[in-house]
Amino acid sequence: MNSFEIRQKFLDYFARNGHTIVPSSSLIPAQDPTILFTNAGMNQFKDIFLGKEKRSYVRATSSQKCVRAGGKHNDLDQVGFTERHLTFFEMLGNFSFGDYFKKEAIAYAWEFLTKDMGLDTNKLYASVYKDDNEAYDLWHTMIGLPENRIVRLGEKDNFWQMGDTGPCGPCTEIYVDRGADKGCKQPNCAPGCDCSRFTEIWNLVFMQYDRQPDGQLVPLTSTGVDTGMGLERLCMIVQGKDLIFNADMFDALIKKIEELTGVSYHKSTGDRKAAFHVLADHVRSSSLLIADGCSPSNEGRGYVLRKIIRRAALFTQKLSQDPKTFVKLAESFIATMSNVFPELTVNKTLIINLLDSEVDRFSHNLIQGQHILDKYIEENKKAGKAKLTGEQIFKLYDTYGFPPELTHLIAREKGFDTDPTGFEEAMLKQQEQSGKKTGDKTQQLLVTENISTKFVGYESLESTSKIIFAKPEENATWIITEESPFYVECGGQVNDQGTVTINNIVYTVVDLQKIGDMYNPAIAVKIVPQNPAITGHEIKSGDSAHSIVNAQARANTVKNHTATHLLQAALIQILGPQVKQAGSLVNEKYLRFDFTHHESLTPEQIIHIEDLVNQKIQENIQTKIFNTSLDDAKSKGVIAFFGEKYNPEKVRVVQVPGFSAELCGGTHASSTGIIGCFKITSDVALAAGTRRLVAITGPEALKVFQQTFSTIKKLSEEFKVKPEEVLGAVHKLHQNALEANSQIKQLKKQLNKSQIPSWAQSIKQIGVTPFLYLETEDLTPDELRMIAQELEKITPGFYVLINKDSEDKNKFAFFGYVSKTYEPKVNLKNFSQFLKDTYQLRGGGSTTMIQGGGTVVPSNFKQDVMKWVEAQK
Fold it and tell me: How far apart are CA 293 and CA 765, in angstroms?
């Protein structure tokens, strides 16, 4: 069976047994800051297990895209050197949410492996948690597994928990005995041993406890099952392969690498074979991460993606001198796997361009970086050290973009160790010096009651409702009401502004938070008295609160939010379907939209985008807002916002019929005409493959148009030309100014040259050196250099030129120049140190010329410089 058949057989088996097939979620986790990437099948069901979410089904199955290359689960460094580690893999899983438990889960797993996959029952083993007698008995009595093929293991191997507290439970794992020849030859070798004989293929987790802060395990009222089995590892076993890279899903990639490099895979050994494995794995993870919206950068997920790509580029060198080999391999992967991952086809251009740009950038850095690395190794060898220091590793990372993992890899090949602790210390020191934040200190308001708020802000901008929670905090108070019109920041739209009146006292809203169930939350409102003189007035549960949203701020925010939807639709229509949102901000002043795109927009494209959005505004299309299921929305091509988590049973669709349809919980205009007009004000690159547009609408756009018109009108009157001719007039004036400046420059040059003989007469012998101290005004460094070189033609020597700025009296530049003849007698490095020690002036340059600057010229500067010259021997 090939991988396509095995994947489908798994899903079909559990569908026959009452499970709902749930599509794989994105590799970028939605609203889960605890993980960098989706790393397990249960990630998308996490809130169900936590009791924060309910679905229409209680049984599910999926084939989930996973990446383990950062954070707690990081297999990056092992890839290529072991028989089973991957950064990207598919996790096959079946899940029960308060439905079946251990008995059914074990029975399903056994039947699928032995009947559908045809595995030899005599080669299957099971491990259970040491105290889980129930699972042990099920394997022994129900399945019939002999006691010598059931192993009890400790908490490290067979007890799973989501975090330090919360849902957890024992697990049982299924192993395949791959033969004694792969073992460690020990008589007691069994599942749990570190050798390659017993390969774990399926982990069944039984969530039955809630771990308390004191470590106590409290039984859950509703138990659950979470299983995970790597598709690649299962294929390796079913297909009888020795290592995971010989499974069929890697065949096309291995053959393509052979074709691109001319190197035989089966004849390769050591690092060369490892290079095949690295490229085959890394092209899968990097391509799919980019397809899901990740871009290379210097932090977070983007940094991990950059490490993956650069590691692949490094290993490419072991097989080919062509740095584009990895990019060409990506084209092959996209063509082969687009039927399974259609997002690869949609984002093909973006994937290829980002990989090409990243590999190209790194290939240049690699040449310089490896030269420096070799230099460090030689220096350390001479010093009797066999380790690179943390400072050296950090220098390579900070200057040449070498991730420390790559430095370790190259160093290891040269027989050198590294100091990761020293690197972390150097990194921390740099962060402290640059003032970078190292953590998020935002605190969540703690509410013990299980309460919620009805949001009425779609229909009304004010409401009167009973307070059901109140908590004073310094000079403010947090309240929760039964109903609220205030929109809480989500999907890029900022918090509403407004007031709350309680017992005839008016309070200003200063913060908003959602608390509790993500789909039915409480809206917490932080308020302070508008009159600071009011103190000591207690707000308590049961009081009535009249909440009013700032209508003007909401109206302008609505314009910008609906315009954001029009903008995304326009970008997709003009630039292509690979465009996807990578972040947004919507407030009353402007909208900001981040999106995936590999190159800057041309002026023509920006005009085209603006014209299309404004066309839809002029058409005054009635917006259509409705609720449906997530599957129904996706089937109709509705776009989801970046980083949002949606209730599969009920999502809100905001549609501009015939043009745009997105999942969104924000507030929107009832028709596009309300937006008024739309204008892009900025287009910048955020990172490789990610751009940011800033735009304005409504009153803000009108204000800009009025200011622009006023400016153009004044210029038109000033130049005595028509408004449409102003640009040409300004351009002509600019050209005239450039020509005038050029003429002035030439005249100054001639003037300076005419004064050279006079200045040369002032050169005096001081000590062993002809010396001149000269003060000038408003000259450029090039002009100062020209003066020195002309003086040298008349009388070689040492010249110190001071140039003052006529516009800024507190600014001057110094220029030191020594002729080759006197270079041995006048050490400019020592002169630079003298200026630094005496006047804190910093300068730099060569052995014959230095330059620098300062504020006010010291009163004794000339005399001190002459004394220094006189002291030279």
Answer: 70
Q: Mean pLDDT over residues 97-116, rounded?
A: 96
The residues near 443 (Cβ < 8 Å, ≥ 6 apart) are none
In angstroms, how far apart are the furthest CA atoms of the chain? Answer: 111
Using DSSP, state whether 417 is helix, strand or coil.
strand
Residues ≥6 apart with Cβ < 8 Å to 459: none
Contact status, residue 523 vs residue 490, Cβ threshold 8 Å = no
Category of 866 on φ-ψ map: left (φ > 0), alpha (ψ -120 to 50) or beta: alpha
Three-state secondary structure of 190-249? CCCCCCCCEEEEEEEEEEEEEECCCCCEEEEEEEEEEEEEEHHHHHHHHCCCCCHHHCHH
The three state secondary structure string of 320-347 is: CCCCCHHHHHHHHHHHHHCCCCCHHHHC
The pLDDT tens digits for 293-352 are 888 887 788 888 988 998 899 899 899 989 899 999 999 999 999 999 999 998 998 999
Each residue of 203-219: pLDDT tens digit?
999 988 888 888 888 88
Distance in angstroms (rounded) separating the CA atoms of residues 290 and 305: 8
Residue listed under structure tokens 């908590």: 471
Mean pLDDT of 562-567: 97
User: Using N-to-C axis directions, what is the helix angle for 325-337 and 270-291, rounded to 10°?
Assistant: 60
Length of the chain: 873
Is 611:566 a contact under the CB 8 Å cutoff?
no
CB 558 within 8 A of CB 668: yes
String of DSSP letters for 738-800: HHHHHHHHHHHHHHHHHHHHHHHTT-EEETTEEEEEEEEES--HHHHHHHHHHHHHHS-SEEE
**316: enclosing H helix or E strand:** helix 300-316
Q: Identify the pLDDT of residue 443.
A: 47
In 3D, which of 504, 544, 503, 507 has the Cα closest to residue 525? 507
Whole-angstrom distance, CA of residue 327 vs CA of residue 381: 37
* CA pseudo-torsion sign 109, 21, 207, 160: positive
CB 520 within 8 A of CB 458: no
Taking the chain, what is the end-to-end CA distance rounded to the nearest angstrom?
Answer: 88
Strands 387-388 and 498-502, sheet pairing: unpaired
**Kind of pairing, strands 150-153 and 124-129?**
parallel
The pLDDT tens digits for 220-259 are: 878 899 999 999 999 999 999 989 999 999 999 999 999 9
Looking at residue 431, its pLDDT comes to: 59
The torsion of the CA quartet 97, 98, 102, 107, rounded to 10 degrees, works out to -60
Place of tokens 């969104």: 664
